[in-house]
Design goal:
Largest sheet: 2 strands, antiparallel
Oligomer: single chain
Structural class: mainly alpha
Number of strands: 4
Shape: elongated
Helix content: 25-40%
Distance between the termini: 79 Å
Radius of gyration: 24 Å
């Protein structure tokens, strides 16, 4: 920078920028999304600052909490999208394998032998909208039911990440939310929190304005407990009914 005859004030700004990034709580956090937020912020702000130098750039050494929070939200949404995609692949592949195994038997084996040797489909690494478990069944038992889709609020098998239904599962209401590329918002543009729609809702206080139900837009609950959501099957159904 000295060889390029930089203004000493700008050199000081840039040094303060890196020093303050290293001191920021996001930098030393164990939350990988906060670490990604630091990378997003420094990359974008440094490029914008360099482009603005000719016109008189701002003091880049003063970090913007608002822009850091925006970078964190984007990192968080990207992570949730990856997990949603893994979940959808798992559901679709599980359905396909289940259909195949019920209609065909390997040559030279009886049904019992083939069922004993068949491998169960691999489980997804994580599930942003996990299945709720029926009472009395251990984890992984056949009593699992699907959670409500954050868009149509239905519990039927479908690619929830790509759901673009215009009405709720029963046709009683127009859907209130949408996914548009990297955004998860209400139809009026207000941003939503993915985790708020889960059975165990988000506990973060960093984005309270996003804690709205994707099914009805109220802040008192998420999609899983929305009155408009498809009711979950009874915990102990009576045989024959």
């Amino acid at each position: 920078m000295e060889d390029a005859n930089w203004d000493p004030r700008r050199v000081k700004m840039l040094l303060e920028f890196w020093r303050n990034l290293h001191k920021h709580p996001y930098y030393s956090s164990r939350d990988t999304n906060k670490q990604r937020a630091i990378l997003i912020y420094q990359g974008e702000q440094r490029q914008k600052w360099h482009r603005a130098l000719a016109q008189g750039a701002w003091d880049i050494g003063i970090l913007s909490d608002r822009l850091l929070l925006d970078a964190f939200d984007r990192a968080y949404r990207l992570e949730r999208e990856k997990l949603d995609a893994l979940r959808d692949v798992h559901i679709v592949s599980g359905t396909t394998q289940g259909t195949t195994s019920s209609t065909s038997t390997p040559r030279g084996r009886v049904d019992g032998a083939s069922s004993r040797t068949a491998k169960a489909p691999a489980r997804a690494a994580a599930d942003p909208y996990p299945r709720d478990r029926k009472a009395g069944f251990p984890d992984g038992a056949s009593g699992a039911v699907l959670s409500a889709c954050a868009i149509c609020l239905g519990r039927h098998r479908h690619r929830v990440y790509d759901c673009d239904a215009s009405q709720t599962w029963n046709g009683a209401f127009a859907t209130m939310a949408r996914r548009d590329k990297k955004d998860f918002t209400l139809n009026d543009g207000r941003a939503l929190c993915y985790d708020w729609q889960r059975s165990k809702r988000c506990t973060s206080t960093l984005h309270d304005s996003r804690h709205l139900c994707s099914g009805c837009s109220l802040p008192t609950h998420g999609a899983q407990t929305c009155p408009r959501a498809e009711p979950a099957p009874p915990a102990n159904p009576v045989p024959g009914k």
